[in-house]
Amino acid sequence: MRLIVLFLLTVLFGQLAVAQEADRVGGGTFTKLIEHNPYSGMTIWGGGGNMYSAWINNNKTRLEMPLLGAMSAHFEYLFSPADGDRRSAAGLCIVRNSSPETPYMLEVKWIKNWRKVIEILEEVYPLHVLTSEEISSMPKAEQERIAEHNKEMRRRIDEERFDYFEVETRTFPAGDLGGVLHDKVAAMIGNVEAEEGTAVDSGGNSGMFRCFVGDEVWTLGIQEMPDEGTVLQMSDLCHRIIEDVRAGTFDEQKYIGMLEPIEF
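The structure assignment produced for this chain is given below.
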């Protein structure tokens, strides 16, 4: 089987301000950030009786803005697929709601033309794809030239894709799940530590978890999703919620049952 090597930078969902950084968390690179929320307890009323924090997160990336919004929700999750993954970038927010019957609202957003836009821009800004044999037989100067070319092509794709993305939205009322999922994610973020070992190559799916904890905002950014462990388990669960809400088949009790046995 031929090994295809790309001279390009991995498309990540963006960089967070780093309070703690490590090379591995069960096989993936991550950043962990804890920020003070000076507006703790203050809320902004949105449409449909939804309540957002008055704290505006200036660390949100360009991908987070259309999928999570400028205002801060009780809980936020972002998924950004790797090259070759046919899924779309998507976001999940759990927002407090004024209704006593459904105290939370799930907000799901996804970029419906994610892969199509990238494929079109890759034709406009083509990358040089070479085999390992071609690379090894090439002068170093030529390798550097191709690497620089691919870096510039990837930069242009990364910048221009946002001009063409189309976002769709679904909402679904929720009860106890909002609090259960928030508490589990907060425990996961607090428990995450780096593991010893050699850092893996980048290029996998990336993700982000964010939640309010007291007067603080906790964020865990996964630049490459690990191959196993609770972080991957929680990411897969959140993505399944996104898919179910999109399909109109969301069952809150199913996910509460899946979350309850997870321990950190």
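Interim note for the steering committee: The chain has two domains: 16-112+167-258, 113-165. The helical segments are 64-68, 114-124, 132-136, 140-160, 177-191, 230-247, 252-259.
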